[in-house]
Fold this sequence. Notes:
With about 290 residues, this protein is of the alpha/beta class. The protein has 2 domains: about 1-90 and about 195-290, D-Maltodextrin-Binding Protein, domain 2, CATH 3.40.190.10; about 100-185, Periplasmic binding protein-like II (D-Maltodextrin-Binding Protein, domain 2, 3-Layer(aba) Sandwich). About 40% of the residues lie in helices and about 20% in strands. The strands form 2 sheets. Strands 1, 2, 3, 4, 5, 6, 12 and 13 form an 8-stranded mixed beta sheet that branches. Strands 9-8-10-7-11 form a 5-stranded mixed beta sheet, sandwiched between helices.
Amino acid sequence: MQANPPAGAPMPDAPERVRLGHSPDSDDAFMFYGLATHKVPEEGFAFEHILRDIETLNHWAREGRLEITAISVHAYAAVADRYAILTHGASMGDNYGPMVVTREPASVEWLREQRIAIPGTMTSAYLALRLFLGTDFAYDIVPFDEIMDAVHTGKATAGLLIHEGQLTHTQFGLHKVVDLGEWWFTETAGLPLPLGVNAVRRDLGPEKMARLSRALKASIAYGLDHRAEALEHAMRYARGLQTATADQFVGMYVNDWTLDLGPRGEESIRLFLRRGHEEGVIAREVPVDFVS
């Protein structure tokens, strides 16, 4: 269902406080640069930026704690009654994405028998790996920014990487077993792997949801149109990456898919969640509503 409230509705005189949750990562910082620096119309809202790791935001969404929040696509299955998905702000892996790495070259067959360090069971990376393996697997939950080191030092046999580790794992001498974005692209005849979205709480009502959608799209567009200054801002959250690597990472996850999912992006999200239900990872069918 596509929610399309009327544009141009009157806005309140005093800005309404809205809590906006996103992760302290370079791609999210790039995306929200326009709003954080008040360079785009804020549609009558005063945004309070709440920075937390994605698994914390996933759990908070189950409580409906924030009005608008970044969440994993997998987590949306648990909060679809509270939130709708904005068509702006998604992170899509277009033939790339989370990957499993090891200290030594390894096969998928070997991987099925190992304990894998994962960043959380509500992440889309976990669901994608579960779909790829076609069966349950043993895992340990490890903070996402500690997984590479855990594999490198031998504390973990294999690790599921998200964020910048997809680009920097070779610096630790780690070996890719599978890139789940590449697998999904082949599996679905060219669809991007849906990883994260921005969701808005339904109880705000159609008119406010539409204004929030416009503000978010304006922020993403501003960053893409003013790339150098937005990237300079994003470097504060790049966790030591070189500028060129951070720019590459931002380009992977803030792009045309982020500006607007479009029909194929929406199709991929619905398919991803449906596959999760068919495999028994998601308990029930998930109704997916988008706000444009």
